[in-house]
Design a protein that fits this description.
Layout (H helix, E strand, L loop, with lengths): L1 H11 L7 E6 L6 E6 L13 E4 L2 E4 L3 E2 L9 E2 L3 H11 L4 H6 L4 H27 L2 H30 L13
Antiparallel strand pairs: 1-2, 3-4, 5-6
Helix pairs in contact: 2-5, 4-5
Length: about 180
């Protein structure tokens, strides 16, 4: 137990360096490039754009993240408020999923599915009335009601996910 406590203490103890180096290997070759990265700072000028110096450490400004491309504070987060307003006003058409997609194909497909369910729930009964038989009207009305219920429940679940910070954008980044 003592050894585990010492290991945890050593890993948790900060070591302040002015500069750190990151070694990056190129593909499958043994060639490597040395990249100079400032992980600690003394002023805001030592940090990259969209970040500031806080107690010798560069921190991202509100609404910016260091994400997949490893460039410090280069990823702009999407607004939770604007996402909720979009979802509230036109969420039934899947616009909220398109907004959050960030060109992610899965989010775009889910947005299309949500749009199709909403459109189908609106026109299904009307199409059955045009056909004109009693059984087609009752089946279409039942199907239209089910699709409407699915659309409303999905719309409501998206609101809850946005308000509970459980809805990520297409790249997996949280909303701000």
């Amino acid at each position: 137990m003592l050894l585990i406590g010492i290991c945890i203490h050593i890993q948790a103890t900060p070591i302040f360096h002015k500069h750190n180096f990151i070694v990056e290997y190129e593909n499958n070759t043994n060639e490597f490039s040395l990249q100079f990265v400032i992980l600690s700072c003394t002023s805001d000028n030592d940090c990259q754009m969209n970040s500031w110096c806080n107690e010798y450490k560069c921190e991202c400004r509100k609404g910016w993240l260091t994400w997949y491309n490893n460039e410090q504070c280069s990823y702009k987060q999407l607004s939770k408020f604007s996402t909720f307003i979009l979802s509230f006003l036109v969420g039934g058409a899947g616009v909220d999923w398109f907004f959050l997609s960030r060109k992610d194909n899965l989010y775009i497909l889910v947005g299309l599915l949500k749009s199709l369910i909403s459109v189908a729930s609106c026109i299904w009964t009307r199409l059955a009335i045009i056909i004109g038989t009693d059984t087609s009207i009752s089946i279409a009305s039942c199907l239209g009601a089910c699709l409407t219920l699915i659309s409303i429940i999905w719309w409501f679940i998206d609101w809850i996910r946005i308000l509970c910070n459980d809805f990520l954008d297409g790249n997996g980044a949280p909303l701000i």
